[in-house]
Design goal:
This protein is an alpha+beta fold and 664 residues long. Helices cover 34% and strands 19% of the residues. It has 3 domains: 200 residues, Heat Shock Protein 90; 169 residues, Ribosomal Protein S5, domain 2; 164 residues, Rossmann fold, CATH 3.40.50.670. The protein contains 20 helices and 24 strands.
Length: 664
């Protein structure tokens, strides 16, 4: 992602900082107020409905349609969803549910199918008559997909008849038509082509979709989801089918595949309280990380909410009560903290709510206040019974918690030496840090540079107004295999935490972050890739909000320099290198071959070259690190950086064919 910007460019004297012009304010009249009708508002501001218009928003289009089919499954009317990515990058979502109604909708005097596909906030999820439980809240899913598609075709199979309606940019081409009879079961099929004028890419990721559908299948017992990729390429006609009889218990076992469980049988409880259905599975393992994933009506609530708060409260209370009753904790001992009881925990918390209240259309956080006490009550009762019936497992879990408590106290003492205080409090920044002069973190960048040599070039080539440099010596500790006290004992990690100024782990406070753009800059070789992976592991485990808030980036230094006389071309891929060579030969007929340099390290570049290619906001390319699926990321980090060799070996053997040969 290119970021061409000048952080300190001042607004003109006659403008506000946000671009509003004083000179035209007197002309602001009723004629300036534009009313967007129908789906035009969606096309004008798509990010409000699907998050953004890059890869995330593109996949969200598929999720919106699949969520509707899952709602049919939750209502007991659907057990099969088929998703197909066609060669032209159009997508089909098909289910065998009841089929969208096609009869007349009384308010608008149109077919209900047309209303669902063209009117925002129209659907069967508001009054409770169509769905008791649904992942949709706003009733905008299908209509938003329609609005953001070049074309869309909806087919409904209902009571032996086939009904069809087609749309262009959300506008129906004809009324809903009955086109014939069908012997297939009832259901809905939607095929759409995302609008190229809106989305920056139409490259769907099979793996991203597969991970999402795997989660959906785990969360919905009896549901089969099939994903077929018809696009040409090395994985042409790739097809996966997901069906899990064990539900979220199978999900927890899957998440723990690369870990050693402390107890073979996962804890599981399922119960309904009022209108809220609660389902929880958990299993402790030998790792130091907490892996808790929450879902509301099958939607992954990545920011948690009431159900997560209720689960955490119940877990802490039940384990402390059991520790007291069993005599493991004496009257004089302090209670185990929430952090203590969640170390090495893998859990899935799934709730089904009649009227879910999410923070936004992207549904990242559940706000229903009544869900917290319901989850707490169910987990307390279930966990108390589990511990009473499985005393050996209970003792193993408590031993893990007590060890975590001792390590937490050691980490607290270590952290006191690390947490950066303000300048008035007197703690200085690391000596190796070359800080910037700007104080507003929104304008500041921190480059984490591999090695002192590259760090020296970066310090000389940077713009010291807003760019800070922190050289890192060698490879940092693999935090996947270490507790916090060991992590804080590592010098390079202490320097990193101190420089960033926001603490780490449970004490991390994003409001205190000194830089809002943290850039990993390593060599383009195997060692550089390893260092980059170690840093990504550190941020994921210790400062996950740096990633989720969009503050973490990866620099893209060029691999090649192509020179001819005074002409310089920098190439980031072999194709770009070959294109530069061809351009030079075309421009200079019968000339000698240009000189080609393969950069194996950042230290090979002088400060001017490093600035021009990798650090200058006007010319560089940065990759933003996103966290689209925390469960999938957790699985990958644990597999690649954990202690278990067989899963890592299998992963490498499976994915080796996707890796280009490295010239190292």
């Amino acid at each position: 992602m290119a970021l061409p910007h000048e952080p300190f460019e001042e607004p003109e004297d006659d403008q506000y900082a946000d671009g509003h012009d004083f000179a035209t304010s007197a002309d602001y009249t009723g004629a300036n107020i534009e009313v967007l009708e129908g789906l035009k508002a969606v096309r004008r501001r798509p990010g409000m409905y699907i998050g953004n218009t890059d890869v995330y928003g593109l996949h969200h289009m598929v999720y919106e349609l699949v969520d509707n089919s899952v709602d049919e499954a939750l209502a007991g009317h659907n057990d099969l969803i088929q998703v197909v990515i066609h060669p032209d990058s159009s997508v089909t979502v098909r289910d065998n549910g009841r089929g969208i109604p096609v009869d007349l909708q009384p308010q608008l005097k149109k077919s209900a199918l047309e209303v669902v596909m063209t009117v925002l906030h129209a659907g069967g999820k508001f009054g409770g008559g169509g769905y008791k439980v649904s992942s949709g809240l706003h009733g905008v899913g299908a209509s938003v997909v329609n609005a953001l598609s070049e074309w869309l075709r909806a087919e409904v199979r209902k009571d032996g008849s086939l009904y069809v309606q087609e749309y262009m940019e959300g506008v129906p081409l004809d009324p809903v038509k009955r086109v014939g009879e069908t012997t297939e079961p009832n259901g809905t099929t939607v095929t759409f082509m995302a609008d190229r004028s809106i989305f920056t890419t139409l490259e769907y990721s099979f793996d991203t979709l597969a991970q999402r559908f795997r989660e959906m299948a785990y969360l919905t017992k009896g549901l089969t989801i099939t994903l077929l990729d018809e696009r040409p390429g090395p994985d042409a006609e790739r097809e996966w089918t997901f069906y899990f009889e064990g539900g979220i218990v199978s999900f927890v076992r899957h998440l723990n595949l690369s870990r050693v469980p402390l107890h073979s049988k996962p804890f599981y409880v399922e119960r309904r309280i009022g209108e809220t259905a609660v389902e929880v599975a958990l299993q402790y393992n030998d790792s130091f990380a907490e892996s808790v994933y929450t879902f509301a009506n099958n939607i992954n609530t990545v920011d948690g909410g009431a159900h997560l708060s209720g689960f955490r409260a119940a877990l802490t209370r039940s384990l402390n009560d059991y520790a007291r009753k069993s005599g493991i904790l004496k009257d004089s001992d302090a209670n185990l903290s929430g952090e203590d009881v969640r170390e090495g925990l893998t859990a899935v918390v799934s709730v089904k709510v009649l009227d879910p209240q999410f923070e936004s259309q992207t549904k990242n956080k559940l706000n229903n206040a009544e869900v917290g006490p319901a989850v707490q009550s169910v987990v307390n009762a279930g966990l108390d019974q589990f511990l009473a019936e499985n005393p050996t497992d209970g003792r193993r879990i408590l031993e893990k918690c007590l060890t975590a408590a001792r390590a937490r106290e050691a980490a607290r003492k270590a952290r006191e030496l690390v947490i950066r205080k303000s300048a008035l409090e007197g703690l200085t920044l690391p000596g190796k840090l070359a800080d910037c002069t700007e104080k507003d973190p929104r304008n500041c960048e921190l480059f984490l540079v591999e090695g002192d040599s590259a760090g020296g070039s970066a310090k000389q080539g940077r713009d010291r107004r807003f760019q800070a440099i922190l050289p890192l010596k060698g490879k940092i500790l693999n935090v996947e295999r270490a507790r916090e006290d060991k992590i804080l004992a590592f010098e390079e990690i202490r320097a990193l935490i101190t420089a960033m100024g926001a603490g780490n782990s449970e004490t991390f406070n994003p409001a205190r972050l000194r830089y809002h753009r943290i850039i990993i800059m390593t060599d383009a070789d195997v060692d550089g890739a390893h260092i980059r992976t170690l840093l990504l592991t550190f941020f994921f485990r210790q400062m996950r909000q740096v990633i989720s808030n969009g503050h973490l980036y990866i620099a893209q230094p060029p691999l090649y320099r192509v020179m001819y006389g005074k002409e310089n071309f920098y190439a980031y891929t072999e194709d770009q290198r070959d294109a530069a060579i061809a351009e030079i030969k075309e421009k200079h007929k019968n000339a000698r071959d240009p000189d080609v340099t393969r950069y194996k390290g950042l230290g090979e570049m002088n400060p001017e070259q490093l600035w021009d290619t990798t650090m200058n906001p006007a010319t560089r390319t940065l990759l933003r690190v996103n966290l689209d699926d925390a469960a999938a990321a957790d699985e990958i980090f644990d597999m690649l950086m954990g202690d278990q060799v067989p899963p890592r070996k299998k992963f490498i053997q499976t994915h080796a064919k996707y890796v280009r040969n490295l010239d190292v």
